[in-house]
Amino acid sequence: MIESILFWIFAVLAVAGGIAVFVVDSMARATYALAVSFVAVGGIIVMLHLDYIGVITILMMIMEMAIMAVFMVMFMGMNPALMPMDMTHSTRRSAVLATLTFLVLAVAIIVIPWPDRTGSAAADLTRSLGEAIMGSKMLVMLTISPVLFATIVASLVLANPRGRYDRYGADLDRRDPDGRAHPEDPIGGGIGR
Amino acid sequence: MSDPVLAAVLLVPIAVVTLAGVTASANGALDARTRGAPLRSGFTAPLHEAARLLRQQRRTLPGADSLLWRIAGAGIGMVAVLKVVVIPFGDTVFADLPVGLVWFNAMDVLLWALWWLLGWGANSGWSLVGGYRFLAQALSYEIPLMFALTAPAIGAGSLRMLDIQAAQVDLWFVVWMPLAALVFAVSVVAFSSWGPFQTALGTDVGGGVVAELSGIDRLLVLGGRYAVLVAGAAFSVPLFLGGGAGPVLPAGVWVVLKTCAVLAGLITLRRLFPTLRPERVAEIAWVVVVPLVLVQLAVVAVIVGMHGGAL
Amino acid sequence: MTLQLVLLVSAALFSVGLYGALTQQVVVMVMMGIELMINGVLLAGGALWWFLSPTPDGQTVLLVILAAMTVEMAMGFAVATVVHRSRGSDLSDSATDLAG
User: Fold this and answer.
1) So what's the pLDDT on residue B1?
2) From the candidates A109, A141, A156, A162, which should be mutated to test the interface with C, based on the most C CB atoms within 10 A?
3) For residue B209, what is the DSSP state?
4) Which helix (H) or strand (E) holds A60?
5) Does domain C3-93 bear CATH number 1.20.120.1200?
6) Most B CBs within 10 Å: which of A52, A62, A125, as the mutation test of the B interface?
7) The pLDDT value given to residue B238
8) Quick one: average pLDDT of C66-94?
């Protein structure tokens, strides 16, 4: 009973939050509506006995939305609440397409004869996940880590036009033409570099 | 409603608020001593301030996003309570999550959102500067904090708070993971946006995120800040200080006593450090602290591997 | 809570995300649509895992989805920054360099 009430609360929050993202006219509200949607999905995932992944989803997504809000404010260039403006294109076709997608998926979900449950859950799912990652499924993590590392490097290269190593050389000791050791650095570091 | 749930709903908020009040009073007393004012006036200063704010009328700037603003203001104290419910008091835990440690981490990430929303909601430039300052600082402290939280988990081989507490029966984690404990303590101060890490509420930006807050809203935020500090200090007890272990007194009392000791340490040491600017914290955190914490983790992992468990 | 119900919720999330990703002009908003779609996939993965075959290995798929979300986010922000720097706006309509 409590379980199904909780599920419905989370389900409604997840979908309503998702819809709100594209309805509200405030950047912060849109971002945090998405955060609400993610937290609700995290809640459902915890209810599916995936405690670790559910809580990690909540953790990651709140963090991501906090950063997302900063980028929103930085790039929007204007406040849609103060200056109403349509920032969308091909709404009607997209709405039709999205509805069709949902209908196809829904029909498939209801029509497909889902197989019976096989296998049984481990007693400690978090531990079994850890053992899977560090054992039989280690290749997955070995693949993810270089991908993540490449992402860090690639996004830094794209986003940072002129970093400190560009300005000061590989050892951070390049001198000005007039021989001064430290040209005016707008980004003074905490350990005196 | 079952008993533990009822206790969690009633007891934890009252305890957190009480301890937060005591901490604020002690801090006020030390402040008064620094100024040369009588100690007693410092002790009662938080009470007077609370009474004043309760009577003050709320004011809002035109265009403020009141919904997000109020959620953020009320949320900070709630985060503190949500952190405390996974802390074991002896064998009693209000919410015995198998991933209690990750839960704590998720809740402290929630503070990112709340501090920034507090800055955004006010519709004031100074407040928003404060919110951005907190996010910049958060990017610095969060990674070391996450690694520091990993150390006790490796030591105990579990993310459940009861297991982490039980693994310290022979030797407290603070003894053989001092660096992780230190980083954790510093991060607690940082996510409370307090002490040396208070630039988000800095006087140089007119109070930052609290610049436009008044009345009950301001009370909730200023109190919530101490509540989060209390929750962080309380969390260090099962994490590094052996949980409820101690002679004579019951375990629950020991948890509270150790929490008070950590808090006393924090409000004393706070006075030794100047306020740190977020961009300075960034380089210190990423270039110095992260490698050190990683070394700490390696040491812990090797010890656990050779010893076959916690020391 | 049954498999079908959870899958319906995830299908709804996916469709809403699809709508957002197709209609929005601002790159960051497009990313939010994509995030919502991945969110639906994550939920569907969790549901299929629990209701059909709750073996330890299945959870790793969810970790891969989370990692994909992270990569999408980081690269999206980087590209948005580049586009914004070179043209002063991050509207997806103006970034047509790769159009045939």
Assistant:
1) 45
2) A109
3) G
4) helix A51-76
5) no
6) A62
7) 94
8) 83
